Fold this protein.
Amino acid sequence: MDSKSLYSKTPIIIDIGTSSIKAGLSGQEKPSLIFPNYFGEMKYSKSVGSWKDDDKKHIIGNDCNKYFGVVKLKYPLSHGIFNNSEDISSIFDYIYSNLDMSITEIKEHPVLIAEPLLNPQENRRNIAKVLFDTYKIEQIFFASQPILSLFSTSSTSGAVLESGDGVTQSCIIYEGYTIPGSFKRINLGGKEVTEYLQYLLNKKGLELRNSDGFQITKKIKEELCEICSPENENKLEPKNYTLPDDSILEIGDERRLAPEILFNPLIREYEYPGIQEILAESINKTNVDLKLQLYGSILLSGGNTNIKGMKERIYKEIKKLAPNKAKIRLHTPSNPENCCWIGGNIISSLEISKEMWISVKEYMEKGENILHTRTI
């Protein structure tokens, strides 16, 4: 089948994460486009291999890789929120270009946007305005990331703890309905873990202060960091990491200290509860009978749940906070970073999805408030 034949009002699912963006057509098994969410701006006016001949202000995502070292990285999102409308347009230009869509095809496809819980309404309004005004999209829908993540498991009830690069969030869904009072969010995630690791390595004498250094530190985090229980913190052996210049760096206590801020944010003077506490707070917003059921049905999603030892540590921490008779069960899917996109894919393929889309006509007639009332 010609790939172009797929473009027949098929929804596009876009999970907008602080660290990466995932996009693809509904009906596919996984997102066809995954790219790091940053721009690259040339550090020097005359650099070998510059893209300036193409009159580009910056390059995006994976296109930055071949210019590593000569570009300064800029991040269009902070804790799940776009910095400005120009960055929104740049991101969607990149998405549509890489999905190989013409201007006519873009208009035909509804767009489902996944975003963090409790995002400022202005962020949603800005995205809608760009899609409706610039790209002439006919239909749009916004959904919360942890809710879609639960739907990816084919379950309609459970407690969700989703921890990504910019936001950690938790909520309760029961028989397909959300409990709004259970929504919890802290602007603490993988980015803060990377920054803390960067700080620890700088103290060790390794200068990793610029945007290149941040990306190197992020790779070190992803490859070597582990989450330990307090009683096992002295059992973690140092490991070596090969830097881009082929020098060897030994990573010792930094491996466990950096991700510890997810459980003890006060280490870095972040005035947030730990991720285990926001999950318990969400569950405790329900009645007594439901609490016990929810402690036995916890979904962990988001990129931070890939950190080694995360599941075991959360289990131990939640056990301390749960009622004595609660049986703790954690579900960790094999691809926690893609749960949200998969959930959006499932929702958009259901018959009921025909009722969720917000048309440009409704938007014009009823105003921006419809973006916040017709949502999940």
About this structure: The chain has a mean pLDDT of 91. Residues 85-98 form the longest helix (14 residues). The CA atoms of residues 246 and 293 lie 51 Å apart.
